[in-house]
Amino acid sequence: MHGAYLDIDPEHEQIFAYTRTLADKRYLVVLNFGTGPLEYQLAGGLRIERALLNNASGGAATPRATQLKLAPWQATIYKLY
Q1: What is the pTM of this model?
Q2: Which domains are seen in the chain, by residue range?
């Protein structure tokens, strides 16, 4: 694998979220394994540039967002600033 992996919230019971960084490119993968919707605050100054992949209708974060509104079982990949 290429790039650095960082689990950004290993203690969360419902969310699996991590970043991948290679040179100046940084991405965020967020998976909501819960059966209900969830608002999820990004830690460490992470900000969304744009959504690249989203398996839910709607629910993708807007540019510069620091909080995500996730649907049940939603999986997203974001490009970060």
Answers
A1: 0.91
A2: 4-80 (2.60.40.1180)
